[in-house]
Design goal:
Layout: E1 7-10, H1 21-29, H2 33-51, H3 61-64, H4 66-71, H5 76-85, H6 93-103, E2 106-113, H7 114-124, E3 131-134, H8 145-159, H9 178-194, H10 201-206, H11 213-226, E4 233-237, H12 243-251, E5 255-259, H13 263-268, E6 271-274, H14 279-291, H15 293-301, H16 314-321, E7 330-333, H17 339-354, H18 356-359
Parallel strand pairs: 1-2, 1-4, 2-3, 4-5, 5-6
Antiparallel strand pairs: 6-7
Length: about 350
């Protein structure tokens, strides 16, 4: 029976770009923004992965920070301008996107704001109609001077909180330290009691970040509109926002690949890649579309560039072989036996690609 046409789907920030645009916007517009964003991102991890707050999903950080961006003067235009001037692609990403677009239906499913995604699509020539991302019109929200003042006061309070350190094996709220539990409860009050009652609370109600189950929903929509099925999908991701799409693609028989992923990605993906260049995304995708998932798994389990002869385009193999040995991509199948090691190694490696501050984010 002829295999259905393969579908390429990737996250953006991580596999395609080195940016964490929301982190960078927060650092740019908000005083002490790097610490502020990192703390809110850890709160996001706790809500999504430990507390499992109803209707909360990984990536909702991107709506939680919006009232503060608004209070410090961010606009649609300034977000677009900053984003377009600060795109930082993973080496090879523009070539990879051109390659996959030329051989198969290809999509980006990203939690990133539309301002950044539009700028990136223009930069690399990727069709915006093939992208799912977080839609937000910041200009439509009008805040009073009193609210702006209060949001800035809250920002100062949050910035003084200790960083929310999450123990490695924490699975329940009581696994967190007493100090962190107090901070989380205070953040609950700030976001779900106080800000939700402000005019700025409209932002929390109306903005729907494309993370977690929304990413999974986007994958299902892509499969439906292309007439494919989940077994036809190869999905690349790197973070907690990719856990849900990883789960549905893997369950549906497709292939899931962590590209420089953190612990959340490694726990759910089938293949771990550590690479400074996206050439390995092109190669795995090419083998997948030609020969299917099982051939990719066999290749990875006995990984050697010499085995790629006849499996992928010669130009891709030539590019791979041009890298010195110490810069060659690392690739392994993820198993229960090597998972903890790969979590450590991939989490450290991603910091060398994206920087320490962004690399530590969930």
């Amino acid at each position: 029976m002829k295999m259905k046409e393969a579908i390429f789907i990737t996250d953006c920030e991580g596999p395609i770009s080195k940016n964490d645009n929301a982190f960078e916007l927060t650092s740019y517009f908000i005083p002490d923004g790097a610490h502020f964003f990192t703390l809110i991102s850890r709160y996001d991890d706790i809500q999504a992965d430990i507390v499992k707050r109803p209707n909360y999903k990984p990536g909702d950080t991107l709506k939680l920070i919006l009232p503060f961006l608004k209070a410090y003067g961010a606009t649609n235009e300034s977000m677009r301008a900053y984003s377009s001037q600060n795109i930082l692609l993973v080496p090879g990403a523009d070539e990879t996107l051109r390659f996959v677009l030329g051989v198969m239906p290809s999509f980006i499913v990203s939690t990133s704001y539309e301002h950044y995604i539009s700028a990136l699509c223009r930069a690399v020539g990727f069709p915006e109609e093939n992208v799912y991302c977080t839609r937000v019109d910041l200009d439509k929200y009008i805040l009073s001077d009193e609210e702006i003042k209060r949001l800035r006061e809250i920002r100062k309070e949050i910035s003084k909180m200790p960083m929310l350190e999450i123990p490695e094996n924490a699975t329940r709220f009581k696994d967190l330290s007493a100090e962190i539990q107090r901070s989380v409860k205070r953040l609950d009050e700030i976001f779900w009691d106080e800000i939700s009652q402000m005019k700025a609370g409209r932002i929390l109600r109306e903005v729907n970040p494309i993370g977690g189950f929304e990413k999974a929903r986007a994958v299902k929509e892509i499969v439906d509109k292309t007439g494919a099925d989940l077994s036809s999908v190869i999905y690349f991701g790197d973070s907690i926002t990719d856990v849900d799409p990883f789960k549905i693609v893997r369950k549906g028989g497709g292939l899931t690949v962590s590209f420089n992923g953190n612990q959340y990605a490694i726990r759910e993906a089938e293949i771990a890649v550590m690479s400074h260049n996206t050439i390995i995304i092109s190669i795995l995708t090419d083998v997948f579309r030609k020969f299917g998932k099982e051939e990719v798994i066999r290749l990875v389990e006995d990984w050697s560039p010499s085995r790629l002869n006849g499996l992928c385009e010669r130009s891709l193999l030539k590019k791979l072989l041009s890298f010195p040995e110490n810069k060659a991509p690392r690739i392994e199948r993820i198993t229960l036996e090597n998972m903890n090691r790969l979590i450590r190694e991939s989490s450290e490696f991603r910091k060398t690609v994206r920087g320490e501050a962004i690399g530590k984010l969930g």
